[in-house]
């Protein structure tokens, strides 16, 4: 079944919040290079096989679209590469040496070694949040009380941003990641407010630096021709705050929901906490509700699965569909908490892979270890099939994760 024979509405329809769209398997098997129509009405090409997604994400020639590319627009009324169409990270240098320079500058603050050093403080935050949820009483929304605030407090502390402003950050983040939830005018207004806030914060830190990531980046950028420009500093702060608010915050809730949906998984971790590391990787692989996918703009013709995709094509890489590819993962539709070989693509691949993956992994480990230790009797307070997906954003999540203990 070739790309021209049908056009699939995208995003694909979900029947349940934790279950993959039925269409994934059919597309992987019979139409791995599929034509899709986005909410904007624009056409793009969807990749669902592990090999194709990995190769596209790792290809240095291609990166996220910019506003100048004329790429397919995900959101109605959006621009092909603007942040208002869902990719806040396009505010930072998107490709080539400027992107690699930015990654070197910022990435050294997100190494596994640094995350290990931050782990005791993260554990302290997680314990306080769990204690606070317990004090309020059972049942409770784990997403609101633990999943959302933990990464927010951590990233605010790392950046040197007042956590008291987290409600504003939440609104701005949602607006900048809007697919259909906000109008373009609302999104642009939120982005302007966010940029003004971050610019003011950078000005204040330049005058009175502290022991935080933004202050350090400002200091390193003080020399002529080195470091980051003011626009890049502002974009970095925005991108890290948005990522800290949305992706890991949603992932903690989804992780707990997946592990409690079949409670034998939770009980296995209680019996053997050494499985936490592989369990986190398996949760990242198994997550069917990851979001829109990563876009790539083709600056030249590319052949995928024997089919030539012409220059100017917008490609959507579905990492969660690729993560269920049975040619790569044995028992791909089964959650194996001890899966040792797990080359999932949740954090992307190659030169544009997620800069904050060590931070995200550490937060997921800490959240899971803390909950297993402090709330071993935890269980879902609703049937897993009643959980509701976050709608209208380019990131996937659950509206609530009701739990009892």
Automatic annotation (TrEMBL):
Residues 59-97 are annotated as: Disordered. The keyword Heme applies. It comes from the Bacteria. Keywords: Heme, Iron, Metal-binding, Monooxygenase, Oxidoreductase. CDD domains: Cyp158A-like. Transmembrane segments: none annotated. Its cofactor is heme. Signal peptide: none annotated. InterPro entries: Cyt_P450, Cyt_P450_B, Cyt_P450_CS, Cyt_P450_sf. PANTHER family: CYTOCHROME P450 BJ-1, P450, PUTATIVE (EUROFUNG)-RELATED. Belongs to the cytochrome P450 family. This is Cytochrome P450. It comes from Streptomyces iconiensis.
